[in-house]
Amino acid sequence: MSLLAVRAAAAAAAEAANRGKIRSRAVRALSDRTMRFLLFCAALFSIVTTFAIILVLLVETVKFFSISYAAPLAITQGDTIASIEAAHGDAEVLAPMNHGIWPPTTLDPGSFVNVPTTPSVVDFLFGTRWEPLLGAERHFGILPLVAGTVMVTVIAAIFAMPIGLITAIFLSEYARPRTRAILKPILEVLAGIPTVVYGFFALMVITPYGLQAPSRFLTGLMLDLGILRPDPIDPGPSAIFGGFNAMGAGLAVGIMILPIVSSLSEDALRAVPRSLRDAAYGLGCTRFDVSTRVVVPAALSGITASFLLAMARAIGETMIVALAAGGLAQLTLNPADQMQTMTAYMVQIFLGDAPAFSVEYQSSFAVASVLFVMTLSMAVLGSIILRRFREEYE
Amino acid sequence: MSRASFADGSVTRLSPPRRTPAEIVASAAPKSAARRVAVNRAFLITCLVCTTLAVLVLVVLLISIAFTGGHWLMAVDRVAAFDSAWSIPGPFGSLGNVAAFVGAGLVALLSILLFAPLKLSLRRVVLSVFLVALALSCWGLWGFIRTDFFTEFASRFPHKAGIRAPLWGSIWVCAICGIVALPIGIATAIYLEEFAPKNRLTNFIRLNISNLSGVPSIVYGIIGLTAFARLFSIFGTARDQPGFEFGTPEQWFYLRLPFGSGVLAGGLTLMLVVLPIVIISSQEALRAVPGTLRQGALAMGSTRWQMVWRMTLPASIPSIMTGAILAMSRAIGEAAPLLVLGVPLFMRRTPENLMSDFTVLPLQIYRWAADPRQDFRDLAASGIIVLLVVLLSFNAIAIFIRQKLQKQLQ
User: Fold this and answer.
1) Do A265 and A343 sit in the same domain of this protein?
2) B113 is a domain residue
3) B383-397: average pLDDT
4) Last residue of a domain, which of B99, B122, B146?
5) Is B74 helix (H, G, I), strand (E, B) or coil?
6) pLDDT in the model for residue B5
7) Per-residue pLDDT averaged across A342-346, rounded?
8) In chain A, residues 253-282 whose CB comes closer than 8 Å to chain B
9) Is residue A133 a part of any domain in this protein?
10) Of A65, A89, A107, the domain-final residue
11) A60 to chain B: nearest residue by CA?
12) How many other CB atoms are found less than 10 A from the CB of residue B339?
């Protein structure tokens, strides 16, 4: 009721304003307080969002760890159905393994029965096999997905961070205003391109023309020179890179985060006061000395924060890796192989590869929690670095 | 350390054997000026190489997409007729020439983006030349564009496929996203910049917003799925038995709880994604308003809200709009959260009400690009051209507003 009254009062105040009357002090104070309250509610919405994210991820992850699914159990000597049911609660005998005898009376050692299992947290966090969809035995060990994400992120960082930082130094220290006025919008255009476009670019241009063609040329050259021996099955020059590979996806992610690194680092560099630069120039420094010995160290906290933010974006990047990195979760260090990242797995599940509310469907929520924790810790680390190591200048 | 003696007693000279005094002096100096200048020049070259690389990537991206995407955007028979009648001499064949036209158009658009901020005396000439080039290429291209591409639904056959459903889906979803996200985002920014007391809660809200901007968009999709599409399963989970209904499916405002993966749920999910962007850009816009304006208003006896409504907001609305346009262009290109929401990838209907199923342009592009057949990958490139034209024009509008604003402030 009170809210209605407040609203009515606000409406009345607005009407009075429309009629051009001078408003009383009380009415003005009331409208001020109402608006302040509404604005405060809007600001609270972001906190609500954060808590909703944490709550939903927590609840769904707990749901994943409590779903029971059928997992095969190898029979050892002396197991009976009764003993297995006593240990695991239920045992579903797999028909082909009973040599056609039904109902099964004896269990042969080496055959399997299905018993209800729930995913374990330790296996999830430290397991090295991620096979939630294929095979009789499922494995929920997230490390292959984490490895894929880290591989793509590292490739992107190696590509984007030096180039982004050097571009930022160029824009803030070397470039004339006119050059800057041309280059800034280009980087902004690069930042505004949707990630699915970068995914298409990785799949259609970077992998075939940027990776496969040079590697095919190189292997051909090495075959001709006799460094490599021809493969008896496929004697022609082979591209080391497959159609889907972590390298192409990583480079595309690097192109995507390049404008983030360069524009945020440039902001940090430009925030360094002019007097520091002038002092260094007065001592006879070249632009290079000023940039690398004065400006970059002074802006180091901002640059680090921009790197961390860019890394967080690379970790959470979805469409590029879903298109170009492949769909095989494997623990490998070879960037020419296909790797599945955490986000790409979620895409695979939500595109309908798994029935809703099944254990593999719920596993994507657990993966999302890990992803959220990784990016959030990056963001928090960035803000801590920015706050603690910032050099304040008057 | 000019000498090093070894265990066997032999002495090895590390420095050159005989040096003139001038050389010794030169080597004693930390680094000669010539060397430092050379290093500086080498670094400048590195800078130029890196920056050129960034620009080159953009150019290669645009050109490759223009060439692969031109095919399904062009009316092939008309192009062929044009080719035989006029026989454009060109290295790429008839389709390639038209694709080059598309590329020229994109380059012209880009050049306008680039040259608009120049303070050259030549600036107007350059600008008008490129505008004329753009207008000519648009006019010339319009006759060759396959309008079927915009009016047909998705299809198993590439020559019949079009983007009608995703185009309308994108429009619906982005409209809902903008209607919800802009008021909330701008209100949050106003509260934080103009009203918020300095206390822990305010600090927490600020920290919270900066963290929210780092959350991956696919995580927002999960929140959208649970909170909007399923409404936490409060109203049941069955699609055909909604817990609450308002209106009929023929009315555009038809409401059903839970929402399901309709345009309303999609728009609200995108709202979560762009909200931090809107808030941060609006905060920056409000911060740029000089404090003297505020002090003047308060000194005249206005309340804080009157000050915001009459002084701060009008002064900052152009840059708030710039941020809003950029946020909306992010929303148009976002695919991951909607994909999590359970949006169908094959859609042969346009949305009719707030609960209708939909698909969006980036998802249609994803579906076509993930198809191994070359024809569909070319279709993806055609969709990308449409998407990029929309986004680049959004960016152009934003940059134009900013330039106008900067002039006004000066």
Assistant:
1) yes
2) yes
3) 88
4) B146
5) strand
6) 45
7) 94
8) 255, 258-259, 262
9) no
10) A65
11) B226
12) 27
A:B CB pairs within 8 Å:
270
* Nearest alpha carbon to residue B318 among B357, B354, B285: B285
Q: How far apart are CA A335 and CA A332, in angstroms?
A: 8
- Could you please report the per-residue DSSP string of B245-311? EES-TTSTT-EEES--SBHHHHHHHHHHHHHHHHHHHHHHHHHTS-HHHHHHHHHTT--HHHHIIII
Angle between helices B200-212 and A359-388 (to 10 degrees): 120
The pLDDT tens digits for B101-119 are 667 667 766 766 666 665 5
For the record, the structure tokens of B345 come out as 């990838």
Of B220, B279, B380, the CB nearest to A200: B380
Indicate whether A78 and A42 sit together in one domain. Answer: no
Largest CA distance in chain B: 101
Q: Do residues A95 and A202 share a domain? A: no
Say how many domains are in chain A. Answer: 3
DSSP labels, B154-216: --SSGGG---HHHHHHHHHHHHHHHHHHHHHHHHHHHIIIII--SSHHHHHHHHHHHHHTTS-
Does residue B179 form part of some domain?
A: yes
Query: Quick one: closest CA in B to A289, which residue?
Result: B40
Range of the domain at B403: 158-409
pLDDT at site B91: 45
Domain co-membership, B179 together with B111: no
Residues 6+ apart with CB under 8 A from A40: B191, B195
Which domain, by its residues, includes A40? Answer: 2-65
End-to-end, the C-alpha distance of chain A in Å comes to 52
Residues A257 and A273 both lie in one domain: yes
Say whether residue B39 is in contact with chain A using an 8 A CB cutoff: yes
Percent of chain B with pLDDT over 70: 73
Q: Of the residues B100, B122, B146, which one is the last residue of a structural domain? A: B146
Residues B44 and B190 in one domain: no
For B212, name the nearest residue in chain A, comparing CA atoms only: A50
For the entire predicted model, the pTM comes to 0.84
**Residue B11's pLDDT band (boundaries 50, 70, 90)?**
very low
- Residue A327's contacts (CB-CB under 8 Å, 6 or more residues apart) are A244, A338, A340, A344, A348
Give the per-residue pLDDT at A144. 93
Report ipTM (2 d.p.): 0.86
pLDDT surpassing 60 at residue B26: no
> Is residue B9 over pLDDT 50?
no
**Distance set, CA A211 to CA A205, B66, B211, B319, B373 (Å):** 9, 21, 36, 42, 21
Place of tokens 């130094």: A169
- A315 and A373 in contact (C-beta within 8 Å)? no
Residues B113 and B226 grouped into a single domain: no
Q: Is the same domain home to A257 and A161?
A: yes
Q: How far is A385 from chain B (nearest CA, A)?
A: 13
C-beta atoms of A188 and B395 within 8 A: yes
Q: Are A289 and B40 an interchain contact pair (Cβ–Cβ within 8 Å)?
A: yes
Q: How far apart are CA A360 and CA B209, in angstroms?
A: 32
Identify from B232, B277, B303 which residue to disrupt to test chain A contact, counting A C-beta atoms within 10 A and taking the largest count.
Answer: B303
- Tell me the per-residue pLDDT of A186-211, one tens digit each, with 9 for 90 and over: 888 888 899 999 999 999 999 999 99
Contacts of B381 in chain A (CB under 8 A): 200, 204
Question: Which residue in B has a C-alpha nearest to residue A201's C-alpha?
Answer: B61
> Closest partner residue to A169 among B47, B58, B226, by Cβ?
B47
| Selection from A264, A249, A265, A255 nearest residue A193 by Cα | A255
Flag if A368 and B184 touch (Cβ within 8 Å): no
Other Cβ atoms closer than 10 A to B351: 22
Which 12-31 residues of chain B touch chain A by CB within 8 A? none
| Residue B191 touches chain A, beta carbons under 8 Å | yes
Interface check for A242 against chain B (CB to CB < 8 A): the answer is no
Classify the C-alpha dihedral A358-A364-A370-A376 as positive or negative: negative
Token output for A102: 């039904």
